[in-house]
Specification:
Order of helices and strands: HHHEEEEEEEEEEH
Number of strands: 10
Structural class: alpha+beta
Distance between the termini: 17 Å
Shape: elongated
């Protein structure tokens, strides 16, 4: 799946169990036989890979929008509560004014109050103040009622949008899970074909994948787009006869593998410790190797460009789990590897 930047995958971190065994992978055991039919499964994996990415992006976008609508509904509900509390206070103030008028004036009309008052002008001023207070409170209550009605409508709309989005997201989750289940099944079918090719020592024909629309401004890219780094160059252990000769990228089976730069395919091979592998020659006397593949998308002798899909990752050969083994060499053959990370960094690619 394509993203604008690298993201770690929540996958197991497999180690490359290849090794630099005494015998290198046998070229003679792995002739490339163009047109030998694995393209259907490989193309299906690539298509499902993209569909799964699209479904995931839609699901995540819907989930984020649902979260925003939920937060909006909760915010409006809190504002509505505050508005109702404020209006309740206004009603209490109006009630206190009415009670005060009743206590002070009883049932006498204003004319009688004026006749009995020691200072009629003072009485009139007091009455005007009371009337103004009543009018102001009535206006405030009216504004508060309108605000409450408006907030109630907004809150209802936000809550409705949130619930619709939640329902849609549940449907998207089912769709996403269905695509991922199909993808997982197709991945292992593709890997089964790869294992058969390695056992027979004969590569299937190139899987001609629909290339991504991404255009790279840089002349160099990482060999896979979304990954988690696993076994690094130079690491040791029981899995290798000598030090590890490349950098492993933990990726699921069927992940598109990219040419890191412009070059020419000098080797497509099946069999041996590397399983299905591709070697590309670049300017400057360097070669890059892509091993443990499930399928190839290029033929020997073909020119490739940066970011071009050249194959699909797998777990063929001496491998303990799905990953890409990537090497940088000074010759096409095993035993001439240099550390990939600094080499890529010199070309502007940070892992």
């Amino acid at each position: 799946m394509r993203f604008t930047r690298r993201h770690p995958l929540l996958v197991a971190v497999p180690l490359c169990a290849l090794a630099v065994l005494a015998a290198r992978p046998t070229d003679g055991a792995g002739p490339h036989a163009p047109g030998h039919g694995s393209s259907g499964v490989g193309a299906e994996v690539a298509r499902l890979y993209e569909e799964a990415a699209t479904a995931t992006e839609r699901y995540e976008a819907g989930r984020r929008e649902a979260d925003r609508q939920r937060a909006r509904a909760h915010e409006l509900e809190e504002r509505l509560d505050r508005e109702r509390q404020a209006m309740s206070g206004l009603h209490e103030d109006l009630g206190r004014i009415a009670s005060s008028q009743y206590r002070d004036g009883g049932g006498l009309p204003l004319t009688a109050h004026m006749l009995l008052a020691d200072d009629p002008e003072e009485l009139m001023r007091g009455q005007r103040v009371v009337r103004q207070a009543e009018v102001s409170l009535d206006q405030a209550i009216g504004r508060s009622e309108r605000a409450e009605a408006r907030l109630a409508r907004d809150e209802a709309r936000a809550a409705s949008a949130w619930k619709k989005l939640e329902k849609r997201n549940a449907e998207l989750a089912v769709l996403k899970d269905g695509i991922e289940a199909k993808l997982e099944s197709a991945r292992w079918k593709l890997q089964g074909q790869a294992d058969a090719s390695v056992a027979a020592g004969a590569c299937r024909g190139a899987v001609r994948l629909d290339q991504p629309g991404t255009r790279f401004t840089s002349g160099w890219v990482a060999p896979v787009e979304t990954y988690e780094l696993s076994a690094p160059y130079g690491s040791g252990g029981a899995r290798w006869a000598n030090r590890h000769t490349g950098q492993d990228f933990a990726v699921p089976i069927g992940t598109p593998v990219r040419a890191v730069g412009t070059g020419r395919v000098v080797k497509v091979s099946c069999g041996g410790a590397f399983g299905i592998e591709i070697v590309i020659q670049h300017a400057g006397g360097y070669y890059t190797q892509y091993a443990h593949l499930a399928a190839v998308a290029v033929d020997q002798g073909e020119r490739v460009s940066p970011g071009q899909w050249i194959g699909q990752s797998g777990t063929s050969g001496n491998s303990t789990g799905p990953h890409l083994h990537f090497e940088v060499r000074v010759t096409p053959e095993m035993g001439s590897a240099v550390s990939p990370a600094p080499w890529l960094a010199r070309h502007g690619v940070t892992l």
